Amino acid sequence: MARGTFANIRLVNKFIGKAMPKTAYIPTGEVMDVFDAAELYKKAQKQVIVLAGKDYGSGSSRDWAAKGPWMLGIKAVIAESYERIHRSNLVGMGIVPLQYQAGETADSLGLTGKETYTIALSEKPKMGELVTVKVNSGREFKAILRFDTEVELNYFQHGGILNYMIRKMV
């Protein structure tokens, strides 16, 4: 499952500038499978986020689409918009869904994805809250926290739906 995540041959990865199921490992620039790059980031204890365009999660197997990024170690997604159910499934896996404010994109903000990001989540996040995202280049911007229900907030505070259910059963 993890090896198949982001392996669609039509996905355009801006690190390599064309549609193919590969990415660039930022520290070296080497082009490799997404899974292999994710393993190197995990080994280096580097957390990973995804910068995405419109309708993130559309047209994919929904369970796979949320579990795969979690298995790759992705902690947050910042997208222009989400497929409704996929966004909720990300929350269920403990991944933070953030959305650019209206009219903003990674390109308009000058983001390449090669930067280091700090996402300032409060201890008690609120639905629709504006969250500050700081970039190591000195730039910062606000993104909308896309927890859309109290249940999603609860799942996230437990680290995802699985942890929530286990704690509830115990």
UniProtKB/TrEMBL annotation:
One of its GO terms (molecular function) is iron-sulfur cluster binding. Residues 1-102 form the Aconitase A/isopropylmalate dehydratase small subunit swivel domain. It comes from the Eukaryota. Keywords: Iron, Iron-sulfur, Lyase, Metal-binding. Its cofactor is [4Fe-4S] cluster. Transmembrane segments: none annotated. It holds the Pfam family Aconitase_C. PANTHER family: ACONITASE/IRON-RESPONSIVE ELEMENT FAMILY MEMBER. Belongs to the aconitase/IPM isomerase family. This is Aconitase A/isopropylmalate dehydratase small subunit swivel domain-containing protein. The lineage of its organism: Eukaryota, Metazoa, Spiralia, Lophotrochozoa, Annelida.
